[in-house]
Amino acid sequence: MRRLLLAVSVLTLGLVATSGVAFATHSPASQREVVGEYNGAQYALFLPYKWNGDLVVYAHGFVDPVAPIALPDVAPIEVAPWVVELRERLLQAGYGVAYSSYSENGWAVNDGAQRTRELRPLFDYYFPTPDKTYVIGRSLGALTTMLLVEKYSTESSFSLNLLGLISLGGSSVRVIDGALALCGPVGGGRKQTDYVAHTRALFDFFYPGVIPGDVLHVQATNYASDSPQVQAIVGSILANPNAAVSLASVDQIELPWTSFPELINTIVRVLGYNILGTNDLLERTGGTSPFENRSTTYTGLGAYDATVNASVDRFAGSTQAFNYLKAFYQPKGTLPVPVLTLHTTLDPDVPFAHEASLAAIVATAGSSKKLVQQNYNRYGHCNFSPAETADAFFRLANWVKRGVKPVSGALAP
Q: What pLDDT digit, counting tens, does each position of 235-255 carry?
């Protein structure tokens, strides 16, 4: 059994200052908090004052592979306040909350699933056993959520013993009762990596030499908004805006935008995943290519299609890499518990088309009755507030507890 390292256990009867723990972790809505480390990951557990007996575990999204390991209420700094506000809303509604940093950053779908699996037994170790447990996954964490739902909704007592945290009698235990997948690549890992890689290959065609290397040969670099690389990308687009419009018009990617600033933002963001994430993904695939476009015919530009297809860089994919993305993860569509997805229709990071792909996969598997898909007609990645996210979760919980299935489709702006 691995040793459990408990960093902090706080009774939050008043304001408590704890050395070494970020302020974001402290919650005025929790009567008790536990912050610790297990299996190389940081975790935080929160028990509200008026607990309703249910637990929500949160799976965070992609984090720059070179960034320090940190709880999602601390980093990334642009997402942490959103996480804190969502946590507070759930605690105020009576739900226990738990989340983890994972022990890895980058394409950490498998590690994220394993570390998130451990949160319920950890919560049970310190607090009473939850009646129902829900998963909320954001961005790449939504793909982790699909893996958890399809593989780990029910755990055998043997599996729980292997976690080294809890011993339960009986043959199996339901450990996930419902899931909310937010703005995620739920159509599968390969679909998402294709989106990023096609965008990079086409950008290199329209703007040659602006980014060193190519789709699979990426130099580690600072990618902050004021960095030389981002400024070079933006400058090249401003110098030749028609090429950016053409890039966004290619059918194989269909970059979302409604204004030229949005188009620039979309291109910069997608290229960021290539620059920040490619080397991490290649390490996970044993250095083999997860991208194949040798037989791709790029369309959407009319007579100019022939020029694009004759000149764009071509790359050979690897069965080894494809198998990795299938394992971590390609949803199979067999849903043992209710799943609600929420997406913006103009998501620059994770295309809304993932939702249609998931619906088709689930329909083929015969599980459509367990899937509800809702959306906001907006531009932006995960561009819904913590309040809107909490409302989506409450719809999921009402479905699980009372059988009131939400209606799929667009929500009011």
A: 999 999 999 999 999 999 989
C-alpha distance from residue 348 to each of 247, 333, 387, 401 (Å): 14, 25, 22, 34
Which stretches within 285-342 are classed as H helix? 305-311, 319-327
Measured distance CA(29)–CA(376) in Å, rounded: 29
Closest to 277 measured CA to CA, from 14, 102, 62: 62
pTM reported for the whole predicted model:
0.92
C-beta separation of 177 from 134 below 8 A: yes
> Using only C-alpha atoms, what is the Rg of the chain?
22
Mean pLDDT across 13-29? 49
Long-range contacts of 4-11 (CB under 8 A, 24+ apart): 4/36, 4/38, 4/125, 4/164, 4/165, 5/36, 5/37, 5/38, 6/34, 6/36, 7/35, 7/36, 7/37, 7/42, 8/33, 8/34, 8/35, 8/36, 9/33, 9/34, 9/35, 9/126, 10/34, 10/35
Cα distances from 131 to residues 39, 52, 120, 279, 321, in angstroms, run 25, 9, 11, 42, 39
Q: What residue spans of 93-240 are helical by DSSP H?
A: 109-117, 119-126, 140-152, 157-162, 189-206, 228-239
